[in-house]
Design a protein that fits this description.
The complex is a heterodimer. By secondary structure, chain A is an alpha/beta fold. Chain A contains 22 helices and ten strands. In chain A, helix 2 packs antiparallel against helix 12, helix 3 crosses helix 12 and helix 16 packs parallel to helix 18. Chain B contains three helices and no strands. Helices cover about 40% and strands about 0% of the residues of chain B. The chains are: A alpha/beta, B mainly alpha.
């Protein structure tokens, strides 16, 4: 039998990687739950409201996008619009060239990962250096992030130390403090050498045009301190209607993502530096990226655009914990990625149509989502879409026989009666090879077919008498 | 500096995606008080909480405005 790609990946995952992913996600999830429920009177109500705010924002983007554009321009920023990744890359390149810039420092932005900006700029002779420690390690290792907010969750400190040694960042030393100091020493020079700083955004307020960035390392602040030009690369779904909504969303984001009350740094950027400010970028460019988002907006899965990239759904997902992030073959792993990644593929949906099947539909992802996204519902919709589009589904057992029985009441009744025979056959003799491994560790429950029919018959009798 | 720009295309797609919606999600009416950590602060002196927190980050709470 062929298996789903995600199953194949999980089957070959190193045991210590699996253990590290499992432990880290489990711990964060437990801390997140305790923090939310110990500190707030009604966290689930907060999640529901946050979801409604974001849903309102995405369903009114035709109002909010022009509003945010006008505010940003009034604040002194240049606003650009990119329909796809290629255009966004070209826009960044054009800004760099207009300033004769050859070096850029980046604070973590998933959108730039999505459009592979660093690789694009590298091909054009521009160095684009990641400054988030995890992303920096990913970059020097030529690896890919495996978690939305913990990009190197799949690596242990020994692997990081080896990587530093290999890349000339000091002799092997796996002390986290030493690793961090070495990275800091290396990056400090880079901040001063770069001419352009690029960031993403966690939120953009349509009311004020403020761009909100949250980090725990202060690297985004460094990216903006010494450089003359700031480029913010932002997905169009990041809009929130008002500044006051940020109080709710920031409280939920930090607790859901890293189990912190607030992230260490929360920055509100209103535009380039004013004449009275001593430091900061003199020029600010904001690039709003579509790259498939408007296609998602047109589907019944538009709710996924509420996502605030906290990673809580990854931390609680039994599939992610076993398979880790690289199994999803996308910048966006886990349950949110299983929905978003195939949708962002547009006409190439089939390439990632297997991801929505990588779920037991347990619903834990929705229960922890700070914006209450009905992820299980969307996984089902996408499974249906794959079926409608005749996308092959390796690993799915043949359902033809079941379909025949389920559509023929008499055949179904006969099968239920015949099924009772199974109770009298020793499990080892059951002619189902695929179940053998399963049966070695579990006991097959007794066959109880026909109970519903019996109940319905009785129920009708009672009702009529 | 002339940059490629897809403004009209994106706005057009957004409108096309949203126009068929029979109704749009309304902005919820809520009290921002919901995001205040009342449980954490219940029965505690707010100044003491602030002092405690500021010490955790090597800061000092000044008690005398002079």
């Amino acid at each position: 039998m062929r298996f789903q790609q995600i199953d194949q990946f999980a089957a070959h995952l190193k045991a210590d990687t699996r253990a590290s992913v499992y432990q880290s996600t489990k711990l964060t999830h437990e801390k997140r739950t305790k923090m939310l429920f110990d500190q707030f009177a009604d966290p689930n109500r907060m999640r529901a409201i946050a979801g409604e705010i974001k849903q309102h924002a995405i369903e009114n983007l035709d109002t909010y996008l022009p509003a945010v554009e006008a505010k940003l321009q009034a604040n002194g920023a240049h606003v650009h619009w990119a329909a796809d990744g290629e255009t966004a890359c070209q826009q960044v390149l054009a800004i760099m060239r207009a300033h004769g810039a050859t070096k850029m420092v980046k604070a973590k932005t998933m959108v730039s990962e999505e459009i592979e900006l660093a690789e694009f700029l590298g091909k054009h002779g521009i160095e684009a250096l990641e400054t988030d420690l995890g992303e920096f390690i990913i970059q020097i290792d030529h690896d890919h992030p495996s978690h939305i907010i913990r990009p190197i969750i799949h690596k242990n400190r020994r692997e990081v130390a080896e990587s530093f040694e290999k890349n000339g960042l000091g002799a092997y030393n796996d002390e986290p403090e030493v690793i961090t100091r070495r990275a800091r020493q290396f990056l400090r020079h880079k901040y001063l050498e770069a001419q352009v700083g690029l960031t993403g955004a966690n939120f953009v307020s349509a009311e004020s045009g403020r761009i909100v960035l949250v980090t725990n390392e202060g690297n985004s602040r460094f990216c903006l301190a010494a450089n003359k030009v700031h480029i913010a690369l932002i997905g169009i779904e990041k809009i929130v209607p008002r500044d006051r909504d940020l109080a709710l969303l920031l409280n939920l984001l930090a607790r859901s993502g890293t189990a912190q009350q607030l992230t260490v740094y929360t920055e509100f950027i209103s535009g380039p530096k004013s004449p009275t400010q001593p430091d900061g970028p003199e020029e600010m460019h904001v690039i709003f990226l579509d790259n498939g988002r408007t296609e998602v907006l047109a589907t019944e899965c538009r709710d996924i655009l509420r996502c605030i990239r906290c990673g809580a759904c990854l931390n609680v997902c039994p599939v992610y914990r076993q398979a880790s992030g690289h199994a999803y073959r996308s910048v966006y792993p886990g349950p949110v990625g299983a929905v978003l990644s195939p949708l962002l593929m547009g006409d190439n949906f089939a390439e990632k149509a297997d991801l929505p099947k990588a779920s037991s539909l347990c619903g834990a992802c929705q229960e922890v989502c700070p914006v209450n996204i009905p992820i299980p519902d969307m996984l089902l919709r996408l499974r249906d879409k794959a079926k409608q589009e005749h996308v092959s589904s390796p690993g799915t057992p043949p359902m033809g026989a079941w379909g025949l029985l389920a559509s023929q009441p008499a055949a179904w009744k006969a099968a239920l009666i015949g099924g009772k025979l199974i109770n009298h056959i020793p499990t080892k003799m059951l002619p189902i090879p695929a179940l053998r491994a399963w049966e070695q560790k579990r006991t097959l429950p007794a066959w109880r077919g026909g109970e519903f029919r019996k109940w319905l018959k009785q129920h009708r009798k009672e009702k009529s008498s | 500096m002339t940059l490629p720009d897809d403004r009209e295309a994106i706005f057009g797609r957004v409108r096309a995606a949203l126009t068929p919606l029979p109704e749009r999600a309304a902005m919820p009416d809520y009290d921002t008080e919901i995001a205040v950590v009342r449980k954490l602060l219940a029965n505690r002196d707010l100044f003491a909480v602030f002092t405690e927190r500021i010490k955790l980050v090597n800061g000092e709470a000044l008690t005398d405005p002079a």
